[in-house]
Design a protein that fits this description.
The chain is an alpha+beta fold. It is built from eight helices and 21 strands. The protein has three domains: 165 residues, 3-Layer(bba) Sandwich (FAD/NAD(P)-binding domain); 51 residues, no CATH class; 81 residues, D-Amino Acid Oxidase, Chain A, domain 2 (2-Layer Sandwich). The two termini are 35 Å apart.
Length: 354
């Protein structure tokens, strides 16, 4: 039987990030990816932003995540010979004068100085409703995740490293010398399935929540917006006169289709931010893997230790995936311990209970 170091299940942002770690380290691998139109990575707005703009606080490990991610996408652009990273500042719409003062205070904190511009910017766009101006976030932008997924799959196909089939869990065989799957032997199997984890019999004891998100593509020739705008929703420029608007968050959804209710909700919030004509050109849907404690899920299965997990990136997968892939790689191959906050061993009691 042919031997590989790794079998990777799933080719979203996490799967791509782990592939890059393996290739850089000279390890052999195969990727299984069935593909779904409703994966979080496929329809993601692709925004990367190291600040929680509702509270004016940095995200977890903001500096490390930001630096790792930006270096990662620059390398991918060179490798795939296509632009992926569209660097755009985020303008946070300020609701009142008090928020402007809070923004200035936050910008002086050590954890936020590198990310927040201290000045409150006045609104000079007559088609944007922002009486109290904006706070500007630096080191932000958009990754074209759709283009990335297509280009990376093409790259793997060119090297015969991509198998476009659904993984069959019952055919995974455990031995003392490796994991056997379809007459091949792997040192490790790494599951990067996103919400597919819910159907994974090895890791479905973990508290992953499927969060439904919807967003719109709009055509607004009068808006003339060249920065990302954050108010009740995000408005993200993607090409001339076209923008992504959204997104919604729903973990109590009753169907798996785009809904008129969500569309109307996004439109109503959009109208509180812009004063111009626009038309809806498309309506997207995706399901994000989120975790109860809002931390990723990394580590080995507590019994079948050749099975590993890279999941739970939530809404910040663009920033999180590269650094989390690096952490898992170092853990599996060099026994460098995972941070307790991301190690799935924090949920071992659930496995024993189940």
């Amino acid at each position: 039987m042919k031997k590989f170091d790794f079998l990777i299940v799933g080719l979203g942002l996490s799967g791509i990030s782990f592939c890059e770690q393996l290739e850089a380290g000279g390890h052999s691998f195969l990727v299984y990816e069935k593909g779904t139109d409703a994966s979080a990575s496929t329809v993601a707005g692709g925004l990367y932003n190291p600040v929680v703009l509702k509270k004016f606080t940095p995200i977890w490990n903001a500096t490390e995540q930001s630096k790792t991610a930006l270096t990662f996408y620059t390398r991918l652009e060179q490798k795939l010979q296509t632009q992926l990273d569209y660097k755009l500042p985020v303008l946070r719409k300020l609701a009142n004068a008090r928020e402007g003062e809070l923004w200035k205070e936050a910008s002086q904190k050590e954890t936020l100085k590198e990310f927040l511009d201290s000045e409150v910017l006045l609104n000079d766009n007559p088609h944007i409703l922002a009486e109290f101006g904006f706070g500007k976030v630096k080191h932000t932008g958009r990754i074209d995740t759709g283009k990335l997924l297509i280009a990376y799959a093409d790259y793997l196909r060119s090297k015969q490293l991509l198998v476009q089939e659904k993984i069959e869990y019952t055919n995974i065989k455990h031995t003392s010398y490796g994991v056997i799957y379809h007459n091949k032997v792997y040192r490790f199997v790494v599951f990067c399935e996103g919400c597919g984890l819910l159907k994974n019999p090895f890791f479905n004891y973990l508290p992953l929540i499927e969060n439904k998100g919807e967003l719109l593509q709009i055509f607004a020739p009068g808006l003339q917006l060249e920065k990302i705008l954050k108010g009740p929703i995000f408005i993200i420029p993607i090409k001339k006169d076209r923008y992504l608007a959204g997104t919604t968050y729903d973990h109590q959804f009753t169907n798996r289709l785009p809904t008129a209710e969500s569309k109307n909700l996004i439109i109503s919030k959009l109208k509180t931010m812009v004063d111009c004509e626009f038309t809806v050109e498309d309506h997207f849907l995706g399901f994000r893997p989120t975790v109860l404690d809002r931390r990723p899920l990394l580590g080995k299965h507590p019994i079948q230790t050749r099975l590993a997990l890279l999941n739970g990136m939530g809404t910040r997968g663009v920033l999180l995936a590269p650094s989390m892939a690096k952490n898992l790689y170092c853990y599996l191959l060099f026994d460098i311990p995972l941070d307790k906050e991301i190690d799935i061993r924090r949920y071992e009691k659930r496995l024993k209970r189940d």
